[in-house]
Amino acid sequence: MSGVLSRLYRGETTFNFVGRRWWGFGLSLFLIVVTMLSLFTRGLNLGIDFEGGVAWEVPAASITIEDVTTILESNKIDTADAKVQSLNGSDGPRIRVQVAEQSDATKSAVQGELAAKAIVDVQDVSVSSVSSSWGRSITEKAVRALLIFFVLVSIFIAWRFEWKMALSAILAMAHDVLISVGLYSVTGLAVTPATVIAFLTILGFSLYDTIVVFDKVHDNTAKYSASRVSYADITNVSMNQVLMRSINTSLAAVLPVLSLLVLGSWVLGAVALEEFAIALLVGLLLGAYSSIFVATPLLAVFKTRESKYASLADEVHTGVEMARIAGSGKKTVQRVVATTTEDSERELVLASSALTHPPRPRKKRRR
């Protein structure tokens, strides 16, 4: 075990990522299908900032969810679409209820009845109201920002590297956002402006991790340009060389977010942090996964079809042979060379496949 960790730390592992790419593609496809089914059947649990409406929050020491529902019905508010949640905060348990837009008279009446039932002052029952037009404006701006981000990133990567890398990176980022949004649909978590901010944040992390791998692939492509090395081998070598860096980067990003979720939200009761931290945590994990198992294998598929690498499409070296390619930049073959007449032993010599002529025979030593 220590040997594997030490080789991982030095970038000397020989995992065959490209050869097992269909495992990653299969898992991603399964998650995307589940996501799409959930989005079309269940939809998203949009918060008040997107749907518009009224929300009350009341201390829950002396009131129950059933009491809240009864108060809503007594004020002729449809409870079928009402969202009632139990929250735990630093100031004790609370109940939050969200309904469609109501008149000012209804807002005040419900606030007073909730305060009376909970045995608290009216000022202790918070009321917030947001119009649906404001929510639509936020949604449109978020979508616009997402599209602009995709376009600018595509242009930059195509200029810095090539368009096939840009396409692979964009597909990986779309993969991360789609599955992250799908998780909110499957679990029924509320989508708030904080969630949207988290979604936009994870795009940056997903892109950064992908660019780290692509930069190493780009360097190794130039390094092996004089040798007949398949693009699958170049990709495998590159991914193994930066694997530890990707893991360290992901851990450095995930641990603070995990602390924010556990300590800030669940222990200290800052519920607003939960909406942001969950989306960020899921996105960071997906970003680390997609850079290794989606973006780079996709690039290998695209590049293998080029005429330069098409003839080597099925050539994927593993184990010791991959380590030799990583060390020398050339494939190696075994060739037996005869030695002097005095020494009858046969010698195993590793010869580079890039050689255009056989190795020069050894001269006989004079007696």
What do you see in this structure?
This protein folds into two domains: 2-45 and 135-309, Multidrug efflux transporter AcrB transmembrane fold (Up-down Bundle); 53-130, 2-Layer Sandwich (Alpha-Beta Plaits), CATH 3.30.70.260. The chain has 367 residues and is an alpha+beta fold. Helix content is 62%, strand content 12%. Strands 3-4-2-5 form a four-stranded antiparallel beta sheet.
Summarize the structure.
This protein has 367 residues and is an alpha+beta fold. The protein folds into two domains: 2-45 and 135-309, Multidrug efflux transporter AcrB transmembrane domain (Multidrug efflux transporter AcrB transmembrane fold, Up-down Bundle), CATH 1.20.1640.10; 53-130, 2-Layer Sandwich (Alpha-Beta Plaits).
Query: What's the total number of strands?
Result: 8
Q: Mind describing the biggest β-sheet? A: 4 strands, antiparallel
Strand order of the largest sheet: 3-4-2-5
Strand content: 5-15%
CATH topology of the largest domain: Multidrug efflux transporter AcrB transmembrane fold
The CATH superfamily of the largest domain is known as Multidrug efflux transporter AcrB transmembrane domain
Could you say how many structural domains there are in total?
2
Helix and strand pattern: HHEHEHEEHEHHEHHHHHEE
- Number of helical regions: 12
- Please state the average pLDDT score: 78
Shape: elongated
What is the secondary structure topology, with strand pairs?
Layout: H1 2-9, H2 21-41, E1 45-46, H3 48-51, E2 53-59, H4 65-74, E3 83-89, E4 92-99, H5 104-118, E5 126-130, H6 132-160, H7 163-187, E6 190-191, H8 193-223, H9 231-267, H10 271-304, H11 307-310, H12 319-328, E7 332-337, E8 347-352
Parallel strand pairs: 1-6
Antiparallel strand pairs: 2-4, 2-5, 3-4, 7-8
